[in-house]
Fold these 2 entries.
Entry 1:
Amino acid sequence: MSKLAINRGEKTVTIPQRDGWEQVTEDEIQIVTDMLRRGELSSAGRGVMAEFEQEFAEFMGAKYCLSQNSGTSTLHAAYFAAGVGPGDEVIVPSYTWHATATPVLHTNGIPVFCEIDPHSLTVDPDDLKKRITPRTKAVAVVHLFGYVANMDAIMKVADEHSLIVIEDCSHAHGAEWDGKKVGTIGHIGCFSLQASKPVIAGEGGAIITDDTEFYERILILGHYGRIARDLVTEKYRHLGNMGIGWKYRAHPLAVGIARVQLSRLNELNEKRGQIAQYWDEEFSKLPGIEPLYTYPKAKRGGYLGYLLIYHAEELGGLPKEKFMAALQAEGVSASEGGYGGNLHLQSLFNGFNFYGDRGCPFGCLYVDKVRKYEKGSLPVTETVAPKVISLPVFTEPPDGLIEQYVDAFRKVVENIGEIQ
Ligand SMILES: Cc1ncc(COP(=O)(O)O)c(C=O)c1O
């Protein structure tokens, strides 16, 4: 028994928590400099942008890829492409970043929240099934923090009910299900390339699909200037080059950065994957600490986060906050995990009306009238979300640091009775 750091014992994590992985290398600096020198500052799908889109599509195994200005705009484009319109329902997990759900409102659709599986924190296919109504058009699946959702079960439900499946892969670049990259298992794959993501543009996004109709609708929504050139069929030809007016194309310099980043993704995933696997094995040996479940057909990727579920009942009922305080005293950078706020209980999705008495053109009006989410309406999500603990993601940590994290957890668990 060694004394806990929180009780004036010695700290376990002594190695400086500096990651050796360089997020931005000379290669990114070089490509941006070259593009600046060439004046490649706006592009309607030519030059580096065309190269990136081709490489991203090839990497993912998709027929089409379009780069965009954010992950949020790729989700709007996906819902629009899927034909979501006034009153249509899109089922989304309540446990995700709000940008998975907010773009549904911009198609005048209604986000309908579903439960997550309490072990993988991804869409629960059985609950998904229960939320389907005649108005359900699509489902958004999030591969949260790189943990892949149960795609076989989700696709089965979707196929039975003719739903369009949109994969939000913003945390999971390069992850796989049954040997296929996520984003290609459903009908449309959306990726954020924002600066905290595994492939960064700074700000940006990429959207992929194999479906020509979806691709053309994504083009006409946000890619004026390349519509006439890039349309495959004649269906939308009458629009000329105008499109619908959202300007969603990406900044070429951002795409240049993302192009280099994509070439480093396999290495990043390999390194992060080894750490995640080691932690999964070690943490699962400890009582009260549950690493998130990885389905047998899944290969995690992106690894935007490393999450654990804390079961106080297995550790003498010690509240999570006190457990985390003890970990932090040991030097572990543990923080509140994932998304504490359940979207279904947020004002934006639960009665907020942008336009007062004049009504609301967005789905929020329908939410207000049709969907009122009381506390307790998604019990699994509401129960598991507060139990999540998040650890930092390391790619090239200094020798011994990853092991010290495990030692710190073990020490706190073994001395749990000493925490006041
Ligand atoms: C799951 C998820 N979806 C969508 C987005 C939106 O991406 P962006 O910030 O690039 O618009 C994010 C951003 O963090 C996200 O975490």
Entry 2:
Amino acid sequence: MRRIAAIAAAKAAAALSQRLKVGGGTALPGLLAERIDPDIVPEMARRLGQGSIIVTGTNGKTTTARLLRGIVRAAGLGVVANRAGSNLMRGIAAALAEAARLDGGFAGAKRRLGVFEVDEATVPEAARALKPRLVLFTNLFRDQLDRYGEVEHVAALWRDAVRQLDRSATVVLNADDPSIAGLAQVSPGPVLFYGVEDTSRGSGGLEHAADARWCPSCGSELAYSTVFYGHLGHWSCPTHCRVARPSASVVATRVELDAEGTSLAIALPGGEISAPLPLTGLYNAYNALAAVAAASALGFGTGAIARGLGSFTAAFGRQERMNVGGRRVQVILAKNPAGLNEVLRTITAGGADVDVALFLNDDIADGRDVSWIWDVDFDLLAGKARSLTVSGNRAWDMALRLKYAGLDSLSQVEEDAAAALRRALRATPEDGQLYVIPTYTAMLQVRELLARWARRPAFWEAEK
Ligand SMILES: [Zn+2]
């Protein structure tokens, strides 16, 4: 009875918030459902015939979860999934309640798989409630320090969560990230590693933003034969305990990137697949690789995996293209130094003049502390940027950072978001490409403005 009331309340709240267009948030439906029935997540998750999987990590969870859902659907299964950004317990509760029938069951329950994107700090609680058959870890970077404390704290939470998993649960780990790979030591069940083998994308040295350059076993400094980005690469602990990057069973054997997309060749136990993706940046190659690794661990065939990747459309706002006033506009979320460095490297790789608008906000969802911008290599834009518009409620912090990168003669501060976007569009030649790089809350604002101008639906209508 209580469960039915919880489901009904969540459905009503979700319908109401959509009707009122108060936003794509699922906080209220999930909070209501959990308040009425505190066991809603474990009880409902138990009814998913194919079980649940958790996707977590600092960067790439939304895109990876979306890629994986495409593969799951291509394999003929039904999906229950939380929406982008609603990755706390209440987001999972809302997703389960919305997908359920009013009697508490799921239509086609036998063929339903839960694919949940989970916030880093929520992993222990989500794992206890969902009893997942698989947990996929993408990477661990410094992100929103004021929310979580240090990366070591998150790593410790994850080790405890993995230690308590069921013996039958598989963990899927990024071999190229030392602190993710180290989770294998505490897993009671099967482990599958994925990684990039194509070293043509790598470089010899660590950048400023490298976080986890210390051995997960003994704490001494790691050596890298190749660095892909941040602290991801082919690593080893040469002096002390001699652990090294484990060999991976799902690997990217070829990664080709340009400003429009990525071409990947991935070798996996069942064969090899080639995947063209409408996403740029090595970080997206990792997202695709992670999704393929999880799909492979779940036993999906290469045919379904290739079809699923092919059906992919860019996760909202992470990397979306639209056409506004005759300019191509691409919105790319930036939330930490490693991610933004990779974005800058990708957009400047073509060598041509690039037009860029940076939006820096400091709301809770962005991280209140904006000092991370000092770890970003904005020098990459020197000689490459044609126009550089700076906005957001911390625009002047960004302007100061750009001054130290020698970009002050180029950058123009425009605090008002709409005025900043207009300026950036005007500075971009017709048929040209504008890169809009916002933090999270700025992305919501920018996306709404651009959508209005490009006459596209609001994101919560497009997102599903
Ligand atoms: Zn060591």
